[in-house]
Records
---
Amino acid sequence: MSVASTVSLEHIRQVRSSADCLYDEQEVNAALDRLAQDITAALQDKNPLIISLMNGGLITAGQLLPRLDFILQVDFVHATRYRGQTRGDSELRWYVKPHQSLEGRHVLLVDDILDEGQTLYEVIEFCRAEGAASVLTAVLADKKHNRRSPPGFLADFTGLEIEDRYVFGCGMDYKGYLRNAPGIYAVKQELL
């Protein structure tokens, strides 16, 4: 049974209406503009393959890609440890691997948030094993805490830093919902 079928829409509405806005839509757009500038400076002459990590990276990539005014290709992967839960398992489950060959390519992985980092790190290692010439990462949000796996792991490009709270919006979800919220919001502790 999926988490979405066990949570009431009333609860989701309550989470949304009571959440604290950490970054509004204008602040998110400004962060995406900065990300695009930094990524363009690093990759505009490298014919990169931009890979979105589904599902969370879908919205970040969808907003970031039109800001990258250079030649590139797009692909996606779907690998998760969460499976609709609010905490991840230790095992990464692959649903979809890249469709394009990674051999000799400069790869940019795009995701919504860098939390503990285990999923993103394992996808990086997969890309390297598949022969990528380089692998860079871009995240809209970097959650500040000391639970990284591996310790000290950081994204190459980061839009915003967020406090160590459960967040949703701009691709980040709460029990499969609220990815489409236009800003980044923190769930009240009593509603988790």
Note: The beta strands are 20-23, 49-54, 73-80, 93-96, 106-114, 134-143, 157-162, 167-168, 184-186.
---
Amino acid sequence: MKNILLLLAFFIVTDSFGQGRQRKSPHDTLTYANGIVIYGRPYKSDREIFGALIKYGQVWRIGADEATTITFKTDTKFGSELIPAGTYSLFAVVNENDWSLILNSQLGQWGAFSYEKNKEKDIAKITVPVKKSDAIVEQLTIRFSEENEMIIEWDTTSVSIPLVF
């Protein structure tokens, strides 16, 4: 019984290291050909997303809660940038017609709140066009196409990032 209580206390303490914050959205782990993406998946829930909830011109963590992370098992071309194998935080500066996607080597960031003090750890920044659709994606989704593009879609907005492994 004592061991069970110690183990329970360990999990409670280690789970609280999320900088004292609690997750508000479901999270997903997406395994793809060259690695893993871990991200929070908030819902639209009748909110205006881009330009309102997520302000244009500001850094966004792509998702909810902790910054999204992406792992590359091998060196990968991310858009036009060659990225060494490893795990990175993924951010975006969202604009109406394009997004600047940022890979940053500082892991464990909550949201984008500490991004400014860690921006010198940016590994790459690429810009991709926004695609609009009449169909609404209710829950933020990251997926990979057969053409090795990472697609991020939410509400009526999507972006595609070409990857070469």
Note: The two ends are 49 Å apart (CA to CA).
---
Amino acid sequence: MTANFSPSEIARLATPVPRYTSYPTAPHFSIDVSNLTYREWLHAMPPGSRVSLYVHIPFCDTLCWFCGCHTRMVRKYSPIKTYLDALEKEIAAVAAHLPAHCSVTHVHWGGGSPTILSPEDIIRLNAAIHTAFPIARTCDFAVEIDPRGMDEARLDALAEAGMTRASIGVQDFDTEVQRAINRFQSFEETLAVADGLRQRGVTSLNVDLLYGLPHQNVSVMLKSLEQVLTLRPDRLALFGYAHVPWMKKHQEMIPQEALPGMPERIECVERATARLVEAGYSRIGLDHFALPTDSLALAAANGTLRRNFQGYTTDDSDCLIGLGASSIGQFPQGFVQNETGGQPYERRVNEIGLAVARGLETSAEDRLRGEAIEELMCNLRLDLAKLKAHHGALAEQLTPEVEGLLAEEPAAWFERTANGFVVTEEGRPFLRIIAARFDSYLARGTGRHSSAM
């Protein structure tokens, strides 16, 4: 399958670029944005705003060596209890600064592993959120689930809490791959959790797979994919493993020589994509797939797909509030991020109620470029007329950049339109590289990134 890519294109796909779940990206956040800024932005939200909540649970009972998340392994439950005490205080403090009549339309619990919580604490955390915030009747409530260690009581608690969507981590079912990443998870226990969720009325299941893992090749990955397809998830994400041991020291446990090279990574993606399309899934953006009736596929079809720190989403809220250690919030004025460490987070919440450690106030140009990059990542297009309608004459500064991109990159990647271009299927694998052409921070940044594929 890599015959579809020239040697120069294969080399380009090894280029380190951001994933663009935000713009500007997190490496450019600074301490110039503080809790004082955060309070001002919360108070400035118009009454009646639609709000999205992200809640971070930074604990696991085992450490997966591939993981790039802010999490830590715990052997006792007491640190989780202490963390939840602080999290409840932050929830109450943030809610107190929001204007009246806001409505929460999306809630997402991530980690770490939210399902490390006891059934009682699942109910407790959900109650704290419902007490503090006005939750819309049609609120989408998603939880990231680790099938390992799941039991009936936790499934019952999640159903009682009103979860509507579950995201199940799989990565790969091959035992050699699992041994190399320190994540042992059978297909049978994954199937049992999927069945248990559906029996309790959870209407949407998402499965995450990874390519580029140690000892993984096309046949290994396709075998796991066939098992996943028997679960018939409504959505599926196919992420590239980001080997960033300079950021995540535990990734040094993965032998570098066991990692597939770029040609192998490309072949895994191409073959898996072809199989998913054959199985009836619509391709969404760069790395997501959904059944045609799923809301993600419908959003992609009608041009309302969005992208945030959880990836592709239908969430069109006016702001995203991050709760918990390392969580990032997004407001019309910019971004805020909480303390990343558990103890610094708890200390700051206990002192003042809020835990912002850094962030970034966006400029008009940032917002212009952010919309352009999101349009590319979601809808594979850039329309200068649309950008001008939203940002005025400022959008004209992108015209020479568009012309430069079309002149310098392969013509097969693009189809010209009256006001810009559409990225073709040949260009889709290069979306992050194309988006990076509109990133004015990239050249002056110090952050290191994973490869484009």
Note: The chain has two domains: 23-323, 363-440.
